[in-house]
Amino acid sequence: MWLSVVGLCVFSCAPKLQNVEAPIEQVEDFSFTGTEAIPEKWWTSFNDPELNILIDSALTENLNLAATWEQFMAAQAILRREKSSLWPDIELVARSAVSRPEPDFAGGENFQAGLAAGYEVDLWGRIRAGIEAEEFRAEASFYDYQAAAMTLSAEISATWFQLLTFRKQLDLTNRQIETNEEIIRLIRARFTSGQIRAVDILRQQQLLESTRDQKIFFETQLRLLQNQLAVLLGRPPQNLSITPESNLPDLPLLPETGLPLELIRRRPDVKQAYNQVLAADREMAVAIRNKYPRISFDLSAQSRSNNYGNLFQDWAYTLAGNLVAPLLYGGRNRAEVDRTEALKNQQLFLYGQTVLNSFREVEDALIQEQKQKERIEVLERRLNLAQKTNKQLRIEFLNGLSEYLDVLLSLDQEQQLQRDILEARQTLLEHRITLYRTLAGGFETERTDSEEF
């Protein structure tokens, strides 16, 4: 009868873990979707072997990612520590004392040895709730690691494509410099025959110097990106020299976005926020169960003697049961429950905000990619028109129908459009990287594949 009453109290008074829903309204499907499935290692969609090698190396060598993994290891250690509370604590006690003058302490207990054990009965599930809280925190820490790995792979991909773009910009600028130098030689020859003004030569020289200035800028950015990539790989910049051999890849087919609820179950940052809510819920359960009585047992066995020879002949045993019930704490326990409930609600709202942010990131990436494709089409049409205009103006100039200033302005516009298109294509790849990062889930790394993990 008594056991039935206790069991009823346990199951009726202890708060249970419930499913957590984000406090947001029902969501509709994403604006765009494709048909291509996203591979676990999404960067392989670009079919760039050099990029694959760089990311594989960074996932092993990057120091920030290694630090995040150690944070997860610390969370695992905390979990093991909390689980030890389910077992009795057993201690070995040994004591030796020498008293002077000896005759004054005849019959004194100078040697002592024994064992002591203590165990708390988890009657209301308070200890298990604390363990569950640490389990959810450990899972959240693991998803932190997965999110950091995802961010790192995206950073390296973006940096790599920027590096390829600036290398192509540098090659293009060198060709433009050669073109401008050749034009200067031609117009100087026409100047000697009186067919062109001196100011036209000066203007063409200005364009040449402007192109050389662009070259210096691209050379600087190329070196800075190499340094950035080296740090992402966990190496000193001065120890690593990267000479990219790849070209900018073609944009892969648009991936399938899936349902919004699938995104919630897939993204590591969303799962991290979800587990923080569950951990806060279990902390609240601990605070509630702290209001209930605690039952514990202490067992000790001791042997005492005046010499080592007789130390283990006589033993004394003690078994004690303890019942501790909160009686008057001035509202402290109630306040702790209110505090943990507020923290749980805080984590719930943060989880909802994380879900909203994830939806927005997908929508933003889809819209940006779509509009960037349209912009590239416009730029390509503008470049085509600029090339035709430049060709026509050169013919008119040679026939004395146009001023050289018109040719110069057209040439400058054409060269700038060539650079703009390269930059626009690189931006399009960055939007696709963002889309992959927002849609993809966590992936396995060398650390998570290890037998120890």
Automatic annotation (TrEMBL):
Keywords: Coiled coil, Lipoprotein, Membrane, Palmitate, Transmembrane, Transmembrane beta strand. Its main location: membrane. The keyword Transmembrane applies. Residues 362-396 form a coiled coil. One of its GO terms (molecular function) is efflux transmembrane transporter activity. The keyword Transmembrane applies. It is a lipid-anchor. GO terms for cellular component: plasma membrane. Belongs to the outer membrane factor (OMF) (TC 1.B.17) family. PANTHER family: BLR4455 PROTEIN (PTHR30203:SF33), OUTER MEMBRANE CATION EFFLUX PROTEIN (PTHR30203). This is RND transporter. It comes from Salegentibacter salarius. The lineage of its organism: Bacteria, Pseudomonadati, Bacteroidota, Flavobacteriia, Flavobacteriales.
